[in-house]
Specification:
With 390 residues, the protein is α+β, with helices and mostly antiparallel strands. Helices cover 48% and strands 13% of the residues. It has helices at residues 2-24, 43-50, 83-87, 102-110, 116-124, 154-157, 171-187, 200-210, 213-223, 236-252, 290-300, 303-323, 331-340, 343-353, 365-381, 384-387; strands spanning 59-69, 73-81, 93-98, 135-140, 147-152, 161-162, 257-259, 268-270, 276-278, 285-287. The strands form three sheets. It has a five-stranded antiparallel beta sheet. It has a three-stranded antiparallel beta sheet with strand order 6-8-9. The longest helix has 23 residues, at 2-24. The two termini are 29 Å apart.
Length: 390
Amino acid sequence: MNHKLWLLGRAVTVGSHVLLEKITRPKARTVEDVPASGNAITSQWLTAVLCREVPDAEVLSFSTSNGSHGTSTRIAIAVEYNEAGKQAELPTELFAKTTTSFSQRMLLGGGNMIDGETRFFMDLRPRVEMEAPLGYWGASDRSSWRSIALMEDIAATRGAVFVEPNAPIARDQIEDLVRNLARLHGTFWRHPSIADLKNPNEFLDAIRSSIDMKGRCAVGLERAESVIPESLRGQSDRLWAGVERALDIATKEMPRTLLHGDPHIGQTYVTGDGRMGFVDWQVVMQGGWAHDFAYTVNSGCEPEDRRAWDRALLELYLEELGRAGGEVPSFEDAWLAYRQQSMFAYAAWAFTIGRAVYQPKMQTDETCLTLLKRITTALDDHDSLGALGL
């Protein structure tokens, strides 16, 4: 209850900031400023954050395009520098994600995700060799829950095309994604730099403090009934118990590493030269590796493909994990972890399609149904609830 009262107080404060921003339309000009939206960005601010290590460099002008809205507000930014900036080869094709609306700030701030991408791009991304955008700046404001992440525009720089969640994925593509996860996890295996990140239990608690996730999952299970295996229909309480148990295992019983946290297939892309990568690092946390592995494989593969590939994918992951510095479990222990950690993906998508009127619509119903069919079929195939003792 104390947390709910705190969140209510935060809603009043954040709402006041959003209203004041609409009236005053403040511009960001110094490195301490956090732009409220793409419209608040100025050449002075871009100079402050992009040219901070090249004293004579300056942003002369910039243009924006391709705006979109979801859990954050996104725009592409093309930057023109003076000669010093050009000589330093400072980035010219950028992508910005801001928390502009009240609902975005409450969702990400209340869910303890407001500075996830800031932390990833500023501190963690430079340490790992994997396919993911480079980051150039990130900041958040604790009072207003404004935030911005400024990163590489991979569509312009790498010819990236974002994966359509409803389309089938090829085996070589899912293999590449699995290798990426293994390199991420191996690099940060028990690493002290991630010790202060939230864990899966804390992430779930933060969501539940603001939204009845269990209730929305129950609604989502009903709305998606046509694609749910018969054995799981009407089992919302048991499924939710599985979600809680799986996250508890990922928090307390597995070696901790850096997790993407939300690596569903819609968070991936393919570059012009065919490499697969991950975007949207808002949910970064520390926890058990199988959380990410199960989410990626079960959301990305059509059931018949997953049945044919998942053992080989796990073997591939474990091989790459060892090369990247992780402690490799036995295949039997890893397979059990995979079965157990398939639960959160169900909750994420049941919650999304089961949204209440006050929640932002983050995905289309078609996408939710496609991914829930893949994910719940995997739960049924692998008896994930049984693997958790439920």
